[in-house]
Amino acid sequence: MLTVGVDLAAEAVRTAVAWVEWSDGAASVRDVVVYADDELIVEAIAQADKAGVDCPLGWPDRFVSFVSAHRVGDVEVPGGLGRDWRRDLALRVTDLAVHERTGLRPLSVSADRIAHPAMRCAALLSRLAVRTGGRVARDGTGRVVEVYPAASLKEWGLPYRGYKRTENAVARGKVVDALTAAAPWLDFGEHEAVCRRSDDATDAVVAALTARAAALGLATLPAPGQAASAVTEGWIAVPTSPLPMLPG
What we know:
The chain has 248 residues and is of the alpha/beta class. The protein has one domain (2-58, 92-245): Ribonuclease H-like superfamily/Ribonuclease H (Nucleotidyltransferase, domain 5). The protein is 44% helix and 13% strand. It is built from 10 helices and 6 strands, in the order βββαβααααβααβααα. It has helices at 38-47, 61-71, 83-90, 93-102, 115-132, 149-155, 169-182, 192-197, 199-215, 227-233, and strands at residues 2-7, 16-23, 26-34, 50-54, 144-146, 186-187. A 6-stranded mixed β-sheet has the order 5-4-1-2-3-6. The termini are close together.
């Protein structure tokens, strides 16, 4: 099995892609590319058995309805215009589910800068649909699954905070050290160095590992009451089993 992880930013300069090959109870990082353009991402996902994308795959349904209504001047709002009402516009069903499970709160795709990568992601999914000849499912049931590396690391009992940005190389090194200790079956090869230099590369590898968990059914799925929203908003797959389960 080949899994791909994509740490998606609005531009290629902060985007990384990782390829992880799985066989005989082991895994190896086949390649990691930092500064990944659209063509590379689409082709990588098209060749993967499962791809984990660290970016929202959709917007909150209520936000989409709100903006559509506002466009034609027909917005209906509850009395008081309180914070809870705005939260319903800002957060997806999956964002609330991740927060309930892990205590982490994903960035709001409708009210934060993560919207810029999400716009790029929407275009990439469209190109991927043309490339593969079929619509890309956003709920994780198809080739692509949405992931959240910090949540994956936390669920696996690994360091998950403070490793972002160039100046946090020491903390990032501890994440890589913890990952290699917890997963001795994972061979980084020559690509360990780039993961220590770049948090984008590290997250791409974690995204590829999470894609494996999703492919094996070892990650969260929408409950019946969440399934309809997951189809349009996207669904973040959070690992439900420890790392040693991934090689099979």
